[in-house]
User: What shape does this take?
Amino acid sequence: MPWLRCLQPRDGGLARRLHADSLGQVTLEWALVLAAVAIPMLVVFRICLAILADKYRMMAFLNSLPYP
Assistant: This one.
């Protein structure tokens, strides 16, 4: 029965084949870099942008005050 051959486990099994497969390694590394560095930096960038906007708002308010 030739169709029975496809149901038999191959040498090494699925876990060994997945461990030996390195085709998606670069993609996984870039995903990890993105998750570990770029996404937290977006949060830091938004916080810094909010601080700069408040600083600009304060300076614009102080510059609009009349002289005594």
